[in-house]
Amino acid sequence: RNARYDYGTAGSPTIENLESAWTHLTGAAGTVLSPSGLGAIALALLTTTKSGDHLLMPDSAYRPSRNFCLNTLAKFGVETTYYNPLIGSDIEGLIKSNTSTIFLEAPGSQTFEVQDIPAIVSVAKKHNIKTILDNTWATPIFFQAHKHGIDLSLEAGTKYLSGHSDLLMGLISANQETWPDLRKMYSSMAMLPGPEDCFLALRGLRTMHLRLKEAERKGIEMAKWLKNRPEVLRVLHPAFPECPGHEYWKRDFTGSSGLFSIVLDPKFNKSNLANMLDHMSLFSMGFSWGGYESLIIPFDCTEYRTATEWNPGGLTLRLQIGLEDIEDLKCDLIEGFERLNQVIC
């Protein structure tokens, strides 16, 4: 009668094994799983907000996170204010009497600003406000969220945990204070992945550290190479001094992953870019990074940024550096840049 597995949505031994492993890796009090990364974001926000509450969300956040606030939380009577991701301790000026949650994402999903997490956490604790961090880029291997005071830490297991782009999953780890509320919300929502996905995630967990170190090495090498290309105006990579918030990455993180962005020279237009991207050989166009394959995707934040102005100075591309040979990847980009430079009639 007191066993956990008294109902199908209570989980399974495979789910519990993954929860336990992730709890150990993150140093949390407990972990719950969800069917996707966005599911984890939704579950975390539903845990810390209620009707009449106020939420602070970084302007650089993953766009589906913004959409959940706009399309779902707003219907429940939760007000969202977007803030400059580089605001630091000045976020105190945005706090209202009903602010319940500060959401963080470091670095930003496409633009890679690194937030001053300790400064924001300090303000949050002063006002008894919960903090949620989307830690998908760094994972617990390169950033220990709970050691830095975060209440709920999210991970899209679809990405680096999977490593093979063959599953959908989200993970939420909680500190001791927030764990009972998270577990209660999780039980009421019955949001759990299937056991096969959990088995595959446990497989991925065994090699995640090795894959991340290789992604970091290749990502930095590729970013350095791209920085010296005449077609590239600048590189947005947290490990590079010119990236906004680099000093916070250097202070708080122990590594970087294989995801970063570049800004192209302003002389190139969308027709040039389409000519480049339509014929890539190794780089596929796709959003869901973290697997073994390299990806490239154009993006433009100008339509939905509200607290900050996104004016990079040229067209922007986000790159995921996979596990292919780095010289082969460079050759693919060299050929792409040749097409980029062609005059489009």
UniProtKB/TrEMBL annotation:
<dbReference type="GO" id="GO:0030170">
    <property type="term" value="F:pyridoxal phosphate binding"/>
</dbReference>
<dbReference type="GO" id="GO:0019450">
    <property type="term" value="P:L-cysteine catabolic process to pyruvate"/>
</dbReference>
<protein>
    <submittedName>
        <fullName>Cystathionine beta-lyase</fullName>
        <ecNumber>4.4.1.8</ecNumber>
    </submittedName>
</protein>
<dbReference type="InterPro" id="IPR015424">
    <property type="entry name" value="PyrdxlP-dep_Trfase"/>
</dbReference>
<dbReference type="Pfam" id="PF01053">
    <property type="entry name" value="Cys_Met_Meta_PP"/>
</dbReference>
<keyword id="KW-0456">Lyase</keyword>
<dbReference type="InterPro" id="IPR054542">
    <property type="entry name" value="Cys_met_metab_PP"/>
</dbReference>
<dbReference type="InterPro" id="IPR006233">
    <property type="entry name" value="Cys_b_lyase_bac"/>
</dbReference>
<dbReference type="InterPro" id="IPR015421">
    <property type="entry name" value="PyrdxlP-dep_Trfase_major"/>
</dbReference>
<comment type="similarity">
    <text>Belongs to the trans-sulfuration enzymes family.</text>
</comment>
<dbReference type="GO" id="GO:0019346">
    <property type="term" value="P:transsulfuration"/>
</dbReference>
<comment type="pathway">
    <text>Amino-acid biosynthesis; L-methionine biosynthesis via de novo pathway; L-homocysteine from L-cystathionine: step 1/1.</text>
</comment>
<dbReference type="InterPro" id="IPR000277">
    <property type="entry name" value="Cys/Met-Metab_PyrdxlP-dep_enz"/>
</dbReference>
<dbReference type="InterPro" id="IPR015422">
    <property type="entry name" value="PyrdxlP-dep_Trfase_small"/>
</dbReference>
<keyword id="KW-0663">Pyridoxal phosphate</keyword>
<dbReference type="GO" id="GO:0047804">
    <property type="term" value="F:cysteine-S-conjugate beta-lyase activity"/>
</dbReference>
<feature type="modified residue" description="N6-(pyridoxal phosphate)lysine">
    <location>
        <position position="159"/>
    </location>
</feature>
